[in-house]
Specification:
Blueprint (H helix, E strand, L loop, with lengths): L11 H12 L4 H8 L3 H23 L8 H24 L6
Length: 99
């Protein structure tokens, strides 16, 4: 369920103004006092903006793999898994790796 804005402090323009002031050098404590917003709320907004930008950046970086390369990747993974199983068996035989 999405929370609906309840007033001026939930307004995106208000949040942008607070963040612009913060980025121009104002302290969170000063902004809190001047605009009547808790320090926690200002910091939470900063974190949410950062996370939103981070997620957008990750989406841009995500590139779908070439479908032709997938079978080769699966084959490499299968060989690697087999090699790891063999190594584990050797370690268990030497009692280096627990059962």
């Amino acid at each position: 369920m999405e929370r609906k804005p309840t007033g001026k402090k939930d307004n995106d323009d208000f949040k942008k103004t607070i963040m612009d002031l913060y980025h121009s050098g104002s302290l969170v404590k000063e902004l809190s006092r001047e605009y009547g917003v808790s320090e926690v709320r200002i910091n939470r907004t900063r974190i949410n903006i950062f996370l939103k930008l981070f997620r957008e950046e990750r989406r841009e970086d995500a590139v779908a793999p070439d479908i032709k390369e997938l079978p080769a990747s699966a084959e490499v993974l299968s060989k690697t898994a087999q090699e790891l199983k063999m190594i584990i068996r050797k370690f268990r035989a030497l009692k280096i790796f627990p059962h």
